[in-house]
Write a structure and sequence with these properties.
Length: about 425
């Protein structure tokens, strides 16, 4: 295993004294399967590590707040091992060396919650923790957002290099090396801001949430969606992972649209999403939003237009994982696309309306609504997907740094097939 880095040496003393009754507080993480392995991503920096099924399950359990001993016992039961045979030390070392651990110890949930609301630890050190919590609660929005987004934890050289290399792979962008460096730096900042925006959804009071939505979020092209709805054909909202994309369903609902949104998240994170809906509803910002998940959610998406609702799906969520779809052209490369949106639209006339967010360092968000992509009864899956990924290519080409898939773009490209021009 990699040695503990100097940046996390402060955790070593805590780990040396840790007991089975202690908890581990992790940074915001996402877990994604890749064949027999799993990749664990730190959401705010893009750093990733690879582990096996046992390691992935251990991280999931740690995220729920279970103690070290409880995790060992649960893993032993789940994988048929005695608890004493479950050694978490290699996993903890790897998490620590990649700065995935924020705290090891017996802090109360209230203390952890306050740190979460005040932002990640480097920000807390600037504004003395509790002061940061008060700032989010009581400071006027402009200085509060300026203070929050001023946090720069230090860009990972490895992540930035990977993003630059992936931008070079997208040859149709035509970016020079200096341009790729600039876009990579901006992209890391966008990913960080998106993570902070998710915290704000939970931390802001109802009144301040309303002001945030009203003063910092605008819509460009709303007439495109309104016109698509008046045509009388089923409408499918096609979102992309740009800007603070997790705000997308909430912002659409706040604008008065009835939305059924497919959310791709771990099972134990679904309650957080549902609680966010309730929080926004209490603030008067979530008039009609339904969150759905998994295969059953796809079926509910397909029935949404029959109930007068607009289905929302983000088809760039799992690029590279479908092994059945034909590759599509994308920025000079060939990608294996996610086919869910084609399944929703194939066999009948549909208006696909691309929607995506962009953000800036001041905390302003713009929802872009593009003209609808018309699909007919005879359109094949390949034809539908090429329209969708063509729209994604246009959106990414306008502001490459806003797309949150650059750090993993190399894994999305169909290997051994060569590149094609779009």
């Amino acid at each position: 295993m990699a040695p503990i880095l100097s940046e996390v040496e402060q955790h070593r003393a805590v780990w040396d004294k840790a007991s089975d009754s202690d908890q581990i507080w992790l940074a915001p993480l996402a877990i994604r399967p890749a064949g027999e392995h799993y990749y664990i991503y730190r959401s705010d920096t893009g750093t990733s590590i690879r582990t096996n099924a046992v390691g992935a399950r251990a991280v999931e359990l740690l995220q729920t707040g279970l103690s070290i001993g409880a995790v060992r016992a649960s893993l032993g039961e789940g994988f048929g091992l005695p608890a004493e045979k479950v050694d978490l030390n290699p996993l903890i070392e790897t998490l620590a060396s990649n700065r995935f651990i924020l705290q090891i110890g017996s802090e109360s949930l209230q203390e952890i919650s306050e740190k979460l609301q005040a932002g990640p630890h480097p920000l807390g050190s600037r504004i003395a923790g509790a002061v940061g919590t008060l700032a989010i609660k009581y400071l006027p929005l402009p200085p509060m957002l300026q203070l929050l987004y001023a946090w720069k934890p230090g860009r990972s050289h490895e992540v930035q290099k990977r993003i630059e290399e992936n931008l070079a792979r997208a040859g149709a962008l035509g970016l020079s090396q200096p341009d790729r460096t600039t876009e990579a730096e901006l992209n890391i900042d966008v990913v960080l801001r998106a993570s902070l925006d998710r915290l704000l959804l939970a931390a802001l009071s109802g009144q301040r949430l309303r002001r945030w939505f009203e003063d910092y979020m605008t819509v460009d092209g709303a007439e495109n969606l309104d016109e698509a709805v008046t045509l009388g054909n089923p409408v499918v909202l096609c979102g992309f992972h740009t800007g603070s994309f997790s705000l997308l369903p909430y912002l659409l609902a706040a604008r008065g649209y009835s939305i059924t949104a497919l959310i791709q998240t771990a099972r134990d994170a679904r309650q957080i999403a549902e609680n966010t809906v309730l929080h926004l509803r209490d603030a008067g910002l979530c008039h009609d939003l339904e969150l759905v998940y998994g295969p059953q959610g796809m079926r509910r998406l397909r029935k949404a237009p029959e109930c007068g609702r607009l289905p929302l799906i983000l088809p760039d969520a799992f690029l590279g994982e479908s092994m059945t779809a034909q590759p599509v052209a994308f920025l000079g490369c060939r990608l294996r696309p996610s086919t869910g949106i084609a399944w929703l639209c194939q066999g009948h006339v549909t208006e696909i309306v691309p929607v995506f967010l962009s953000s800036n360092p001041e905390g302003h968000h713009c929802l872009h609504v593009e003209p609808p992509l018309h699909t007919g009864n005879e359109d094949t899956e390949e034809a539908i997907l090429q329209k969708v990924y063509g729209a994604l290519a246009t959106a990414v080409g306008q502001a490459p740094h806003q797309w949150q898939r650059w750090s993993e773009f190399h894994s999305m490209i169909v290997q051994g097939k060569g590149n094609i021009e779009p």
